[in-house]
Amino acid sequence: MSPAHPENWPVLTLKGTVDEQLMRDVKALAAAAEDSDGNPPLSEQTLVTLRVADAGPHSVLTLALYPPDYSGDPAGAGAEGPAAAAAADRGAASRPARGNDLAGIAVVVEDTDGTGVLEVAVHPSYRNQGVADRLVGELQRVRGFDGLKAWSHGNHEAAAELAARYGYVPVRELWKMRLATASSELPDVGLPDGVTLRSFAPGQDEDAWLAVNRAAFAHHPEQGNMSRADLDARMAEPWFDPAGFLLAVEPSGRILGFHWTKVHPRHGEHPAIGEVYVVGVAPEAQGTGLGKALTVAGIRHLQQQGLHAVMLYVDGDNIPAVALYRRLGFSRWDMDVMYAPGTAG
Question: Which of 15, 85, 107, 321 is the most buried (most CB within 10 A)?
Fold first, then answer.
């Protein structure tokens, strides 16, 4: 096998928060992949955890694959011999200085019970060369696949083939649905009697919101387990806007529900788009129409920002939610697929 083949490139294996240079390289890779595919290759949870590994009860394992430094820079990640050994030993300090050299990344976000979620992203310039196989093979060596599931954002054919090679099968479909706001006619939906809307107040509403979120999503391990550190990490992101974080409150001030919206800025040829980030209703207020009222209110807020489209994620088997979104004018746009060890059939 040629030294220029990814099978011979050293893999940097890191635990915990990654340094600023690798984070920049990951973001550059993710941007290139999204421009090429129309889908972000890594979830927001993964990017937040990479940046702030102690945001919640998670641990993070990162495997980064850089190509050999053909410029002859002695500090580069050589393909074999002493340079490769030095790259493995010194870790991040021995990466090439160029920020566009990250060929691929594999990230495992692991919970305290040993289960974890894997995401793999490959730069478009390095596809069809065995980069993903190199990363997954190294992951198998250093950690193994016990308790590990994997996301494919956009469910690309290459990802399905890679999953099949390692005995993984689809276990969950996460639909992306889209609404063209310019042509949509949203229904007039009133709030329940006595309930009003206001924006989230940083420094005031965090604990009360976390309590409602836990209750509303007790059945949903990803959203329901959000901690104060998780929330703080998201509030520190550039996209966070408390004006678009709508709370439904009683006259006493108690939070009954919320619609947290998000705006994805223009990216390459893709225009800015709004997102129904998360809608939650306290158990005691479910069945009152509050969820639909919050959904419509959040979409109207996004329309007022001049956005021409709104998207959302919903589990494909959540029939009531899918039906609600279809009635509001959403249609299926794309799909993420989760894979887990198993057998087909």
Answer: 107
